[in-house]
């Protein structure tokens, strides 16, 4: 498998959608999802310009953070409160904030190191029982409720769309998320700086971008099928 070719192809596909929809060709940030991928393969991808990396487990992020330099780390998976302390100084963006208790814990550790930590609020737009994220309607009230946590900066929203073979079936969720994102931006709360709408994975990123995503998280299309599960 040729990783450089995969990365180039993803960039091309992203650009094609952006041109088609009249947006700037650099309007989408590609986050390469490196979970279960060995360090030497990741380094190969980094050498070909993949500089934003996403991990969904704290331990893996911490280990790889030590071995791979010159990149920005994204925490994209479920984050347990007792593990916040290990990553609060290492992440460029936490995509998976979805509770007040987690927000307080991030804020507490961020204050300890005097760093304002950028976060996205994860939304469970399809109300899937097995999925993390806040119910769609609770998202804005939740964000309003954490205005006093001075060491968290809410930068936008994240969605993991329901798994499907046909991305058209999840287009309505992407569309609803874009609307929520625009509302938030308009509200312009002082503790927010609404910039990122993180949605779109290997199977659905083109539809997500068509609907307004500006950050995609892609693993399989870059690194191939993972050996282990999620
Ligand atoms: C694994 C994962 C991805 C990437 O999924 P692919 O289908 O391999 O592109 C994106 N986001 C999250 C939260 C993930 O856990």
* Radius of gyration over C-alpha positions, nearest whole angstrom: 17 Å
CATH class: Alpha Beta
Examine the secondary-structure arrangement and name the CATH architecture.
Alpha-Beta Barrel
| CATH superfamily caption | Alanine racemase
Bin the helical content.
25-40%
Q: State the low-pLDDT regions, or none.
A: none
How big a fraction of the residues is strand?
Answer: 15-25%
The total beta strand count reads: 9
Order of helices and strands: HEHEHEHEHEEHEHEHEH
What is the number of helical segments per DSSP (H or I, 4+ residues)? 9
Count up the domains. 1
Secondary structure class reads alpha/beta
How would you describe the oligomerization state of the chains in this entry? single chain
Give the biggest sheet: 9 strands, parallel
What does this structure look like?
With 230 residues, this protein is α/β, with parallel strands linked by helices. It has one domain (3-223): TIM Barrel, CATH 3.20.20. The chain is 38% helix and 21% strand. It contains nine helices and nine strands. It has helices at 3-20, 39-47, 58-67, 84-87, 100-112, 139-145, 171-187, 205-210, 220-223, and strands spanning 29-33, 52-55, 72-75, 91-97, 117-124, 134-135, 152-159, 192-198, 215-218. Strands 1, 2, 3, 4, 5, 6, 7, 8 and 9 form a nine-stranded parallel beta sheet that branches. The longest helix has 18 residues, at 3-20. The two termini are 21 Å apart. The mean pLDDT is 97. The chain binds pyridoxal-5'-phosphate (PLP).
């Amino acid at each position: 498998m040729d990783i450089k070719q995969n990365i180039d192809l993803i960039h091309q596909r992203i650009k094609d959608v952006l041109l088609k929809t009249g947006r700037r060709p650099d309007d989408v940030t590609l986050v390469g999802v490196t979970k279960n991928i060995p360090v030497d393969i990741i380094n190969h991808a980094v050498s070909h310009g993949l500089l934003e990396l996403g991990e969904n487990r704290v331990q893996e992020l911490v280990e790889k953070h030590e071995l791979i330099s010159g990149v920005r780390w994204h925490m994209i998976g479920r984050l347990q409160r007792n593990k916040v302390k290990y990553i609060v100084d290492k992440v460029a963006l936490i995509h998976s904030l979805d509770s007040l208790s987690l927000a307080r814990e991030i804020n507490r550790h961020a204050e300890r190191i005097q760093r304002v930590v950028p976060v996205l609020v994860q939304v469970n737009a399809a109300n899937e029982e097995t999925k993390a994220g806040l119910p769609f309607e609770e998202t804005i009230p939740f964000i309003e409720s954490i205005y006093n946590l001075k060491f968290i900066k809410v930068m936008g929203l994240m969605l993991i769309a329901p798994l499907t073979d046909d991305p058209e079936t999840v287009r309505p969720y992407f569309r609803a998320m874009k609307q929520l994102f625009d509302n938030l931006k308009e509200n312009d709360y002082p503790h927010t700086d609404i910039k990122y709408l993180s949605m779109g994975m290997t199977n659905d990123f083109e539809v997500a971008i068509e609907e307004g995503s500006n950050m995609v998280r892609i693993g399989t299309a870059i690194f191939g099928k993972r050996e282990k599960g999620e």
